[in-house]
TrEMBL record:
UniProt KW DNA-binding keyword: no
Principal location listed in the UniProt entry: membrane
Keyword terms, alphabetized: Membrane, Transmembrane, Transmembrane helix, Transport
PANTHER family for this protein: EQUILIBRATIVE NUCLEOSIDE TRANSPORTER, EQUILIBRATIVE NUCLEOSIDE TRANSPORTER 4
Membrane association type: Multi-pass membrane protein
GO MF, one annotated term: nucleoside transmembrane transporter activity
Ranges that cross the membrane: 38-56, 76-95, 107-128, 169-187, 208-227, 272-292, 304-328, 334-353, 365-387, 399-422
This protein's name: Equilibrative nucleoside transporter 1
Superkingdom of origin: Eukaryota
Length: 423
């Protein structure tokens, strides 16, 4: 069902991924260049955008905790967001063959925008900074659920689209997610330095997070609708269309029992990559941000200490996700094995939290936090790049969505472990 083609076979173009090309395609056809790296920049920005809404909610948790005392804000937000997002992804996977990714992603962005605009409006028109107005709390939880639906639509679609393109675009999306964390850390440091840490300061800080997220979301809507009109993206979309046509000619419409069989084949092809991604996030979320921010203390840095640790993790996560253009570990078994090897972080962090006094000081904890971020970023990026290339081009989008499902499950399990087992 098609042949492989490399950049060399395509006339030496810089788009260097291996793809499965339909038989009817001219193997010597010139691959369009990504002029001014515009497609790369767009996919990087899309990666930044779809995590910002969640980051806005968790970064503003201090303000929500002030408004609604006695509620476990961070835990409720996490459970609602992840469960709804997980359900959304399951529906998308089940009906991916019947739906259009462009429609899904645009609907997702519209839901993100509605949710992000709703929060400051609820605060201005209803809550108005008053404590204990629990109608606002339930409305905010509903908005978080709406963001969970949007996340499944957008994240699954964007990663799925990137899986159909050369590897640099998947790297762009994944690096963008890390840049989102860095952006939030910059906002957190800036607002803490500028605004007093009283009720009014917390309120102003929260509004900054949501306003920035709204601006980035509007930018993402424009960028996404420009992306699939770019020549390099259209080229690979056309290849996918040819591959889909060939598959229909050979097998008929991929629906019902045939789709379920195809889906299980896709899951079987990426299951070990997905398992590696799952364990990466189980380990990371078991440690970060919970134990790192709540169980370590510094007499010198005081309440800046957890902020510095979060910023350090985010910066090194970004560094890890930008290393693959320099060196991509193409040995899948080694990458998956290294992902499981990150389980060693659990006993090492345990020693840092409960061992000799030296290991509980700022330098060892900061170094380990940086390594946690670096390995999280690099191996996530490697596995996300390699996995979609193990399936036929027409199924790369579904493979990408399946990988996002593994990632979200890993986040959920890691969050539960961090609550049930304090390091």
């Amino acid at each position: 069902m098609g042949i492989t083609i490399t950049a060399a076979a395509a006339g030496g173009d810089s788009e260097s991924a291996i793809h499965l090309i339909p038989k009817s395609t001219n193997n010597q056809e010139k691959i369009p260049k990504d002029s001014f790296h515009l497609a790369y920049i767009i996919y990087f920005t899309l990666g930044v955008g779809y995590l910002l809404p969640w980051n806005a909610f968790i970064t503003a948790v201090d303000y929500f905790t002030y408004l609604y005392p006695g509620e476990s804000i961070d835990r409720v937000f996490a459970i609602v967001y992840m469960l709804v997002g997980l359900t959304s992804l399951l529906f998308i996977i089940a009906f991916a063959h019947k739906s259009n990714s462009v429609v899904r992603i645009n609907v997702g962005y519209a839901l993100f925008l509605v949710a992000l605009v709703s929060v400051p409006l609820i605060d201005v028109w209803y809550v108005a900074g008053r404590v204990g107005v629990y109608g606002g709390y339930y409305a905010t939880v509903g908005v978080v659920a709406l963001c969970g639906v949007a996340d499944g639509l957008v994240q699954g679609g964007v990663v799925g689209n990137a899986g159909e393109l050369p590897e640099r675009y998947m790297q762009a999306v994944v690096a963008g997610t890390a840049a989102s964390g860095v952006l939030v850390s910059i906002l957190r440091v800036s607002t803490k330095a500028i605004y007093p840490q009283d009720a009014d300061g917390l309120r102003q800080s929260a509004n900054v997070y949501f306003i920035v997220s709204i601006v980035v979301m509007l930018l993402n809507i424009v960028f996404y609708n420009v992306a699939h009109r770019l020549p390099v993206v259209k080229y690979y979309k056309n290849l996918k269309s040819l591959a889909v046509t060939e598959e229909k000619e050979q097998k008929g419409d991929i629906t019902g029992k045939l789709w379920r069989s195809t889906l299980w084949d896709i899951v079987g092809s990426v299951k070990w990559y997905g398992s590696g991604i799952l364990i990466i996030y189980v380990v990371t979320l078991s440690i970060f941000p919970g134990s790192v921010t709540e169980d370590v203390h510094s007499d010198t840095l005081k309440d800046w200490y957890p902020i510095i640790l979060i910023a350090s993790y985010n910066v090194f996560d970004l560094i890890g996700k930008t290393l693959t253009p320099l060196y991509l570990m193409e040995n899948a078994k080694a990458a998956i094995g290294a992902s499981f090897g990150r389980l060693l972080f659990l006993p090492i962090f345990y020693v840092c939290l409960h061992g000799p006094d030296f290991f509980q000081t700022e330098i060892p904890v900061t170094i380990l936090t940086c390594l946690l971020g670096l390995t999280n970023g690099y191996f996530t990026c490697v596995l996300m790049i390699l996995a979609p290339k193990t399936v036929l081009l027409q199924h790369a989008e579904t493979a990408g969505i399946v990988l996002v499902l593994y990632l979200v499950v890993g986040l959920a399990i890691g969050s539960v472990v961090s609550w049930l087992w304090v390091l």
